[in-house]
Structure formats: C-alpha cells, structure tokens
Amino acid sequence: MGERGGGEEDGVAKKVVKWPAIKPKKNLQVTHLKDIHLLTIPNFLSSVESRAFIKVAESIGFAHQGSLGPTRGEAYRDNHRIAVDDPVLASTIWESGLKKVFADIEIRGKVAVGLNPNIRFYRYNVGQRFGRHIDESVDLGDGSQTYYTLLIYLSGGSKGESGESLVGGETVFYGSRRGVVAEVAPVEGMALLHIHGDKCMLHEARNVSKGVKYIFRSDVAFA
User: Fold this and answer.
1) Beta-bridge mates of residue 39
2) pLDDT in tens, 147-204
3) Is there a contact between 214 and 121 (Cβ–Cβ < 8 Å)?
4) Is 61 a member of any domain?
5) Can you give the residue range of the structural domain that contains 119?
6) Contact (CB, 8 A) for 155 and 54
7) Residue 23 lies in a domain
8) Is 158 within the bounds of a domain?
9) According to its record, what are the GO cellular component terms (predicted)?
10) Cα angle for residues 192, 76, 200 (degrees, 5° grid)
11) 15-22 long-range contacts, Cβ below 8 Å, gap at least 24?
C-alpha cells in the first residue's frame, strides 16, 4: 500500500476571488494512457486561461505544505498550496468540457455529477516534489463520492511568464510491482485524470529541476 497524500481539506481560503473567464471546450482530444482509468486532455485550458489562474492564485498567496513522511502514513511532500471552496468555479470547469468526457463513465453503478467544490492550487519550485502516494476517495456529504483526481497543469511544455521553461515535475504512476506504468510531463493547459480511492495507482510528482510548476486540482464526484 502506498503512502497517503495527507489532509486536502485544511487551510481553505475564505476571501472572495474573481476567477478568469473560461470558454466552453470543443473537440477535446482524450488520450487513454491506462485503459479507462488514466487519461489526458491536451489544451483543456488555453495559455491565456492557464496564466490567468496563476496570476489569481499568486494574488491570493500560497502557503507551504510539507511532510517528511512516512510518519503517520503520509508521503514525503514539499510544495506550496492554496485551497478554496467555490461551487461556481467547480461547476464552470465541469460544464466547460469535462461533463462530456465523463458522460459514459460509470463507477459502481454511479455516474459523474460534477467536481468537488474544494479547489486546490499547487506550486512546485525548483527542488520541490511530492513522494509516492495514493489519493483517497472523499464523501462530499451530499450523496456523492469522489472517484477521480483532476489535475490541470497551468505551466509546462513552454516558457512561462518568467521566460523560463519548466523541467522535471513529471507525474509518474506505478503498477503493482512498482514498475512505471505511465509518466506524464507537465504541459500548460493539459488535464490529467486518474481513478482514486481503493483502485488508485501509486504515483508521485517528481522533483522540479528548472522553472515553476503550477497545478489546478479537484476531484470528479459520482452519485
């Protein structure tokens, strides 16, 4: 069993935030990396949208999140984080294109109904990483349960606003024998979705060696 990622619901920002406008997504190209449970969607957010989210997140202010692991069952973690509860933002991202992607996906007889309104933003500076862990399913208290992790890379694959390319920071998934199943390099605007809970693959965010990695994080809920 892998290490747990630790508490995701702590430190929720309370201030009112004006998020970037998100255009509806058409002709999304979904790539399945590991049957139906691991998939990527290039260009889910445009470069303008991705960089606008970074600006807003930086204006809110990140707090450091760390764990030396494996004490208390937590993975090694070193990054910066923001969490906001925003049902409107969650609904906007879901309706913009993810709803169509999950239209035919069922988990235990349940269908996807939207995103967890608890939205997190992560920032990884040079030298920071998140060790091997699994993501746990969350009961949202309204009859729905999360079964997929959503990551949207807000930087990577090109020079960011600082003019510096992102190097490192790959999301790596491991099989039952700890062999690499998939390795996903961050690309600005690309969404990565993978099943979590009791079927979650052990995975990690590798060390960033150049630039800054930014991520938009939520979960797909089923009911």
Assistant:
1) 32, 193
2) 999 999 999 987 655 567 899 999 999 998 889 999 999 999 999 999 999 999 999 9
3) yes
4) yes
5) 31-66+75-222
6) yes
7) no
8) yes
9) endoplasmic reticulum membrane
10) 40
11) 15/60, 17/56, 17/60, 17/84, 17/86, 18/56, 19/53, 19/56, 19/86, 19/89, 19/92, 20/48, 20/49, 20/52, 20/53, 20/56, 22/49, 22/92, 22/93, 22/96
pLDDT digits (tens, 9 = 90+) for 59-92: 999 999 998 766 666 789 999 999 999 999 999 9
Burial label, 88 (beta-carbon count in 10 A; 0-12, 13-18, 19+)? exposed
Give the three-class secondary structure for 114: strand
Q: Which residues contact 114 (CB under 8 A, 6 or more apart)?
A: 90, 91, 94, 99, 144, 220, 221
Residue 36, both tokens = 């139906």
CATH number of the domain at 62, please.
2.60.120.620
* Domains: count for the chain: 1
- Split at pLDDT 50, 70, 90, the class of 95 is very high
pTM: predicted TM-score of the whole model, two decimal places: 0.91
DSSP characters for 1-17? -PPB---SSSSEE-S--
Q: Which two tokens stand for residue 91?
A: 């609904």
* Secondary structure letter of residue 134 according to DSSP: B
CB 171 within 8 A of CB 151: yes
Which pair of structure tokens corresponds to residue 97? 């294109």
Task: Report pLDDT for 128.
Answer: 97
Examine residue 20 and state whether it is found in any structural domain, yes or no.
Answer: no
Bond from prior residue into 70 cis (ω within 30 degrees of 0):
yes
d(CA 165, CA 4): 30
